[in-house]
Amino acid sequence: MIRSTKKKTKKTGRRHPMATVALVAIGLIVTGAAYAGFSNSSAIAEVDLQAQSTIDEGQKLFASNCATCHGIQADGTDEGPSLIGVGAASTHFQVGTGRMPLAFQGPQGMVKPKQFTEEQTLQLAAYVASLAPGPGIPEAQYLDGDGDVANGGELFRVNCAMCHNVAGAGGALTEGKWAPKLSGVASVHIYEAMATGPQNMPVFNNANISSDEKRDIISYLKYLENSTSVGGFKLGSLGPVAEGLFIWIIGLGAVVALTVWVTAKSN
Question: Which regions span the lipid bilayer (predicted)?
Answer without folding.
Answer: 245-264
